[in-house]
From TrEMBL:
Domain of life: Bacteria
UniProt-listed InterPro entries: CblAdoTrfase-like, CblAdoTrfase-like_sf, PduO-typ
Record-given protein name: Corrinoid adenosyltransferase
EC number of the protein: 2.5.1.17
Organism: Paenibacillus algicola
Catalytic activity: 2 cob(II)alamin + reduced [electron-transfer flavoprotein] + 2 ATP = 2 adenosylcob(III)alamin + 2 triphosphate + oxidized [electron-transfer flavoprotein] + 3 H(+); 2 cob(II)yrinate a,c diamide + reduced [electron-transfer flavoprotein] + 2 ATP = 2 adenosylcob(III)yrinate a,c-diamide + 2 triphosphate + oxidized [electron-transfer flavoprotein] + 3 H(+)
GO biological process per UniProt: cobalamin biosynthetic process
Length: 186
């Protein structure tokens, strides 16, 4: 099998049930999810290197779920029995967030992205995830989508934020508070 098909040479690509231009909002949304998945891979490698086995397992699961998100957005006309992203996936993220939060010190001020290498990587995941979420919301204004994808991405960015803080705690690296922040969290 050849890796190139030449079918996209004129600026179009296939989706499930049709073809669209490569700069279509649908392609922007699931293309950004694919970009996020690559950054999650980097975080996974750093988690493995740091010996954070459970976090690495979670990140691998998230990689599969991000493929599910992209798949759901690739349908020209999604049907309920075709979509993969469901409320249970959001609930799982919430459980992980709650467990990580138990390890983290209270937060009162905004923090800067960074700290340990792993935390910095997870903050990149968070910001790319937020962009994917924004693009998915934009897409949902013009076409039918599985709205669980938007919920999943929203919760996933929370997961990355809390996981980054936990990575710093486990590495013994404090979060860096934004110097000009007042107390915004109670």
């Amino acid at each position: 099998m050849k890796m190139y098909t030449r079918t996209g040479d004129a600026g179009e690509t296939s989706i499930i049930g049709g073809r669209v231009l490569k700069d279509d909002p649908r392609i922007e949304a699931y293309g950004t999810i694919d970009e996020l998945n690559s950054f999650v891979s980097q975080g996974l490698c750093l988690a493995q290197d740091a010996g954070f086995t459970e976090l690495a397992k979670q990140l691998l699961q998230i990689q599969h779920e991000l493929f599910d998100c992209g798949s759901d957005l690739a349908y020209a006309k999604p049907k309920e029995d075709q979509v993969k992203v469901h409320a249970g996936m959001v609930e799982q993220l919430e459980q992980w967030v709650d467990l990580f939060e138990e390890e983290n010190p209270p937060i009162e001020r905004f923090i800067l992205p960074g700290g340990s290498h792993l935390a910095a990587s997870l903050h990149v995941c968070r910001t790319v995830c937020r962009r994917a979420e924004r693009l998915t919301v934009t897409l949902s204004r013009t076409v039918d989508i599985n709205h669980e994808v938007t919920r999943y991405l929203n919760r996933l960015s929370d997961y990355f934020f809390v996981a980054a803080r936990t990575a710093n705690v486990r590495a013994g690296v404090p979060d860096v508070e934004y110097e000009r922040s007042g107390k915004v969290f109670r």
